[in-house]
Amino acid sequence: MLTAYDFPTAKILDEAGVDVLLVGDTVGMVVQGHSTTLPVTMDQMIYHSEMVGRAAQRAMVVVDLPFPDGQLDILHSVKCGARVLKETQCHAVKLEGGAEQAERIEAMVRAGIPVMAHIGLGPQSVHVLGGYRLQRDIDRLVADAKAAEAAGAFVVLIECVPSQAAAAVTEAISVPTIGIGAGPDVSGQVLVTHDIVGLTSGYTPKFTRSFGDVGLVMREAAQSYCQEVKAGTFPSDAESFE
């Protein structure tokens, strides 16, 4: 599972064999340049989800419900989830929270909206949590996962927890688990695509790994373009019309 926010990226990831594409509210940080995910709006999520949904031919596409659309009254959240399914070609929504979100998850699933639950570190609750901190309470994590599963979540994403905590959660529930900063003992992994291809603009989390350096390639291409334009070697006859 990897994040995607636009058509060309989603198309590449889909063709590469990525099973699930996440249109994450991380768009606020890695694309818009904010310090948190909190400024992202529902309309912006729909905008990006439309692009990703059109590109995906085989991958499942999951869309984040942004703050505060996943925290306001339950009917509002159901309506937002319905927008995702009606206005994009995406398949499910992701909702931050565990036991405290059980009623909301149940209502959304009952309305025909598949829900991926998100437990552990919740970036939308960063101010309540006092920052981006490792979540160590295994009992609470297991209880959150069980509550989400019982409410109808088809998968549970676990963020920024010790490996043994993620293993305990995976053992405790029957639906798949997806880890990010949660060690290897989960059903699958998710990372932010920009982090794995070298398009980061600052801090890189401990739990990510660089699998390429697209940023370097882009910088070199832009430098070469500038040099050739200034030298008068671009455009050449081959790139000009007669």
From TrEMBL:
Keyword DNA repair applies: no
Active site: E159 (proton acceptor)
Enzyme Commission numbers on file: 2.1.2.11
Places the protein is found: Cytoplasm
Record-linked CDD domains: KPHMT-like
Primary subcellular site in the record, as a coarse category: cytoplasm
Pathway annotation from the record: Cofactor biosynthesis; (R)-pantothenate biosynthesis; (R)-pantoate from 3-methyl-2-oxobutanoate: step 1/2
Single GO MF descriptor: 3-methyl-2-oxobutanoate hydroxymethyltransferase activity
Binding-site residues for 3-methyl-2-oxobutanoate, renumbered to this chain: D25, T26, D64, K94
Record keywords: Cytoplasm, Magnesium, Metal-binding, Pantothenate biosynthesis, Transferase
Cofactor(s) the record lists: Mg(2+)
Catalytic activity of the protein: (6R)-5,10-methylene-5,6,7,8-tetrahydrofolate + 3-methyl-2-oxobutanoate + H2O = 2-dehydropantoate + (6S)-5,6,7,8-tetrahydrofolate
Cofactor binding note of this UniProt entry: Binds 1 Mg(2+) ion per subunit.
Superkingdom: Bacteria
Keyword Magnesium carried by entry: yes
Cited InterPro entries: Pantoate_hydroxy_MeTrfase, Pyrv/PenolPyrv_kinase-like_dom, Pyrv_kinase-like_dom_sf
Annotated positions binding Mg(2+): D25, D64, E96
Classification via Pfam families: Pantoate_transf
Family listed: Belongs to the PanB family.
Complex formation: Homodecamer; pentamer of dimers.
UniProt cross-references to PANTHER family, sorted A to Z: 3-METHYL-2-OXOBUTANOATE HYDROXYMETHYLTRANSFERASE (PTHR20881)
Described function: Catalyzes the reversible reaction in which hydroxymethyl group from 5,10-methylenetetrahydrofolate is transferred onto alpha-ketoisovalerate to form ketopantoate.
HAMAP family referenced in this protein's UniProt entry, alphabetically: PanB
Official protein name in the record: 3-methyl-2-oxobutanoate hydroxymethyltransferase
